[in-house]
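SAMPLE LOG
Freezer: B-3
Tube label: C17
Construct: single chain, 379 aa
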Amino acid sequence: MNTNEITLAKSWELISKEDNNSKDINWQDTQQVMDTFGLSNWNVSVEEVSKVITNSLVTGTNQILEQSWTIPKGQNNDRVVIVRKDTGTGLAFRTSQYTPVQNETLFEFGDVLMKQFPNAKWVNAGKLGDGHKVYGIMELPDSGFLFGQDDKVDNYLTIANGHDGSMGVTAMITPIRLSCTNQLSFALSNAEHSIRAKHTLNVNNKIDLAKKSIERFQVYAKQMQVIGDNLFELPCSTEDIRKMYVGLNGVDAKDNEVPEVYNGKGRPEDKVGEDGRPIKYGSMQSKKFDNAEELLVNIYENRWDNDLKDQRRTLANTMDGIENTMWGGLNALTEHLDWYQGKYSDSSKIVERQMFNSGHQKKRNAILDMVLDYNEIKV
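STRUCTURE (predicted):
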């Protein structure tokens, strides 16, 4: 899908296509969901590496995997390759102690989770790359948040596993604001939004991990409701938005002298702080930064009357109902991060970035921290 055609879809709806007629699916039948999204007919195996030839690996069964590999120097003797069995595709180069978690095991864990929530059902599943990461997403009806009169946030629970060793089995709370499909997953002070298995899943620790996931979800939901309620009652101006955005880029957001956009001419010369040392504006002294900031203001003000080239979504008024509130400010900053930063022609990279990229999650956490700090809210 061309990112210029995105019309407020949830990120995972951009790439996962059902192999069968989805209208006939029982979305509470985990096996049917796996079948529909092409996740039930393959597993991975661990193959010894007998030889390394240029950028190819030869496994112990003389299977040649011809693709680019980053092979750690001096560690070839204790390495195996993770192979997708149905295609023969090599997914990763790992240590011999690596134990894979198969798709069936991941979704058995999801099934245990789903049975703990009344009316929960799968809404999507899929893979990234050649099967490097596999995930399933379930909707948790009647568990969302409501701010003000009708600003609704629905809650989803995502399970995922990295066959390439990039992540272990993980359960993540995934709140989605309906009006803009922002993913409002933040690391709160006493409630992380995700939990990971420390070792291979078996019957007992699948149940234990499910219980911990539910406990974490309940704590997270309570904290997020309190934060949202507080922010909804606080005013937010365009000047506040500009200051918080500049603050995210290394300048004190509470500085009354933080300059506004300079029409492509960049920021003024460096200032000197109270300690006598220069305050660097760095990348903010650029037309690129000015355009990014102006795009953020457009999102916040529901204003799409200019010709900025980085518009990726149907120009919807995503701030309706939350204008002039700090809840609107948080969502404008998050929408700007999730949907407009970075150049991605491949929709799967948007999903990877929003749902599984730790660097992106840190930026999302920084946005919430900035908004809370700017308003002197303690959680």
